[in-house]
Write a structure and sequence with these properties.
single chain; alpha/beta; Lambda Exonuclease, Chain A; 6-stranded mixed beta sheet; 11 helices; globular
Length: 284
């Protein structure tokens, strides 16, 4: 019979199980308590009401996804408007009038956006799942769009927020860097460029990654994953969950799905209406 010591030695030599993570999972650990509510606690605490700006963004993403699924001859600006209307939801808006106002604004966005696209220029992927293993991680996620530009791929991410993104935003996005690494592995092609396409303004923010910039993002992801694993293991050993997954309150807690369950978050932020993050419609 094997003794305890040799067993422990064998276990120590075994490879560590890969930690599967998406960009949103890593980002959630910016506030460990939010991470716990989302990924650890079961049942998951009841989330707060839907936010209108999230409803708006989701409808735009779905419309653009399905536009590329149409036959080429049907990929028209009018089709994009119709797809937006068909996939519109009223969740989070003050009333039906406000919802209809923003539906019309979003229709203008997608119409103008697809009008400058070539329907015959097929993307390599739309809502494409990509993944890649590293030494201790599996980076995975779905990319809004992956284009082919010459011999290289371009990661495209749609944005609908009130502030147009900058090239610095593209450079600093850990999610986009992870998608570059995963797209390289999944599609077996070169990929360095990332782009943020802002539909409200029509602007494009971009960055060309290097091996060094990707390595920095990967190191950050690894450090966050290590912290998550350590916290989860500590909790499993019997530690207090609020000590292991503490709140890190900021004014952004106003938009947290779990604000009602977090006294620290409520103390650090104002309660806001679900539609208050929408831009000023008069400038659209």
């Amino acid at each position: 019979m094997t003794t305890g010591a040799p067993v422990q030695q064998l276990l120590a030599k075994m490879p560590r199980r890969l930690f599967k993570c998406t960009p949103s999972r890593l980002a959630a650990f910016d506030c460990p308590r939010r991470y716990r509510f989302t990924y650890v606690d079961r049942p998951t605490p009841v989330r707060g009401p839907a936010s209108a700006h999230n409803t708006l963004g989701a409808a735009v993403h779905v419309a653009l996804h399905r536009w590329w699924q149409l036959e080429r001859a049907k990929r028209t600006p009018e089709s994009a408007e119709l797809l937006l209307e068909r996939n519109w939801q009223h969740n989070g808006f003050r009333d039906e009038a406000q919802s209809e106002q923003w539906r019309a604004i979003a229709q203008r966005w997608v119409r103008a956006y697809v009008a400058q696209l070539d329907p015959a220029d097929e993307p390599v992927g739309v809502e494409r799942y990509v993944a890649t293993p590293t030494e201790s991680l599996v980076l995975e996620g779905r990319v809004d769009r992956i284009d082919a530009r010459g011999d290289s791929l371009v990661v495209v991410d749609y944005k609908t927020g009130r502030r147009p993104p900058t090239d610095d935003d593209a450079r600093g996005s850990q999610a986009l860097a992870m998608y570059v690494l995963a797209a390289r592995r999944t599609l077996r092609r070169a990929c360095t460029r990332v782009e943020l396409h802002h539909l409200p303004s029509g602007g494009v923010a971009a960055f060309e990654h290097t091996d060094e910039s990707l390595a920095r993002h990967l190191q950050r992801a690894q450090q966050t994953a290590d912290d998550i694993v350590a916290a989860t293991d500590t909790l499993a050993s019997g530690a207090d969950r609020d000590d292991v997954f503490p709140a890190r309150p900021t004014t952004s807690c106003s938009w947290c799905d779990f604000r009602a369950h977090c006294p620290e978050g409520r103390a650090a932020s104002e309660a806001r209406d679900p539609w208050s993050a929408l831009p000023d419609p008069t400038v659209q």
